[in-house]
Amino acid sequence: MGTDHTSKIVGTAWGLLILNTLGSTGAKTIVPLPRSLIQMVTMGALAVAFTLALAVNPRLRIRASAFVFLLTLLLVPSVISSADLESGFGALFRCARLALFVGTLWLLSRWWDGGLTFVRHHIRMYFAVLASVAAGAVLSPGAAMPELYGGRLVGALWPLTPPQIGQYAAVIIGLAVLLLLGRRTDRVSAAVVIVPALVLLALTHTRTATLGLLIGLVLAIGSLFLTSAAARRFFAWAVLCAAVAAVGFGSALRAWFLRGQSEENFTSLTGRAKVWDALLAAPRTTSEHLFGAGLGDKSFGGLPIDNSWLAVYHEQGMTGVALVAAVIVVLGGVALLRPPSLPRACAIFLISYCAIASYTEAGLGDASPYLLHLAVAASLLAVPAAAPAATAEVPGRPVPRWAQSSEVT
Q1: Angle at alpha carbon of residue 163, lines to 263 and 304, rounded to 5°
Q2: Sequence-ordered list of residues with C-beta below 8 angstroms from that of 249, at least 6 positions apart, any chain
Q3: Mean of the pLDDT values across residues 91-106?
Q4: For labelling alongside 232, which of 20, 22, 274, 333 has CA 20 to 30 A away?
Q5: How far apart are CA 275 and CA 285, in angstroms?
Q6: Contact between 230 and 351 (Cβ < 8 Å)
Q7: Which of 287, 259, 319 is nearest to 76 (CA)?
Q8: How far apart are alpha carbons 164 and 168 in whole angstroms?
Q9: Is 18 buried (19+), middle (13-18) or exposed (0-12) by CB count in 10 A?
């Protein structure tokens, strides 16, 4: 199979994984889409992604990956807690989905070589998703910025919430900036991605994504500071622009950040703290404490948990929390041990972004965009496979005719 053809199949499988994690809930769309239809599309995308990954890797060649291994171990508390059906048959369905998701990552890990291939797949797919958001805003501004969400931008063609759009925009902005600094893309191509994504991010009023983008870029560019003159120049200009913006547009930035909320609502993280307190105060058995209550919809008492660590604790117990923490620690530790490079900087950005977003967003314990971000980071930190050593020829010894074949079967 040709290299280009294989690369296209791998990229298609990655795009289908992203489609699977878009979810089926959100704002009302211009053309009403039944939730059952959306779920059929997203689950079908996962099945096709697994099939494509298996077709392009029929011999099941995989790379050793602590990241995917830990995700595989995460299936254990998920199945144990879901087996008693306390959360209904949907919990077992979500376990099967997570297993298929992790299996696809194992199959695709063969192409994790420390290069930027999956970064480009990531940017292209999420840019396509954001293009659909922009198209929906042009076709129906009222549906794209409804009063139900306080006038924040939502998906009018596909049901996407403001935090989802903000996350996708922030991630591709950060990756595009790093590619530009590393001279792996030109300014025009980077601007085509960065400028529209910045506009969409601003329209979502998503504070978590904005902070994750800024802090993630600071850490990523900081990792290049001693080895890249472009990174130093960008950092200096960014600090200057930030200082000017803080002085000249301080009140406007504060109003954007508060989103019209009262101080009480802001300090309680838009009501999240009340849900968190109730979840932690709820009585639990020893089994629930260790393995959770089973995979669910990341809600408690009918309200979203909006915290990855508490969502994992609720659904997969302390065992799940320990495994998810190990994922972050292992990836972060490997990134710190690598020498300065553009792939390392991209990995640091993705890891730090996911760590920051985990405080107000759920998703680290189940098939989600956050696990895909971390998978890209894992692909960037993978050590390239060593080329097979050439066998030295011994002068003076004739090679038998039967040994001169170029392929061994």
Answers
A1: 75
A2: none
A3: 94
A4: 333
A5: 20
A6: no
A7: 319
A8: 6
A9: buried
Tell me the pTM.
0.90
Counting other chains too, the contacts that 53-58 makes at CB distance below 8 Å and 24 or more residues apart are: 53/10, 53/13, 53/104, 53/107, 53/108, 54/107, 55/9, 56/1, 56/6, 56/9, 56/10, 56/13, 56/107, 57/107, 57/108, 57/110
> If you average pLDDT over every residue of the chain, what do you get?
87
User: Which residue type does 357 have?
Assistant: A
Amino acid making up residue 348 = I
- Whole-number Å distance between alpha carbons of 280 and 278: 6
Cα 176 to Cα 169: distance, rounded to the nearest angstrom: 11
The angle subtended at Cα 338 by Cα 334 and Cα 341, nearest 5°, is 130
Angle, in degrees to the nearest 10, between helices 272-281 and 308-337: 100
- What one-letter code names the amino acid at 14? W
Number of residues that this document lists for the chain:
409
Q: Is 227 helix (H, G, I), strand (E, B) or coil?
A: coil
Residue 58 CA to residue 43 CA, distance in Å, equals 22
Instruction: Say whether 300 sits in a helix, a strand or coil.
Output: strand
SS3 299: strand
The pLDDT assigned to 266 comes to 59
Amino acid identity, residue 128?
A
Extract the tokens encoding 259. Answer: 């989103």
**Residue 113, CA distances (Å) to 1, 50, 354 in order:** 19, 20, 22
User: In the beta sheet, which residues pair with residue 299?
Assistant: 304
pLDDT tens digits, residue range 309-334? 999 999 999 999 999 999 999 999 99
What the block records as the tokens of 95 is: 């376990």
pLDDT for res 209: 94
The Cβ-side half-sphere exposure at 113, using a 13 Å CA radius, reads 9
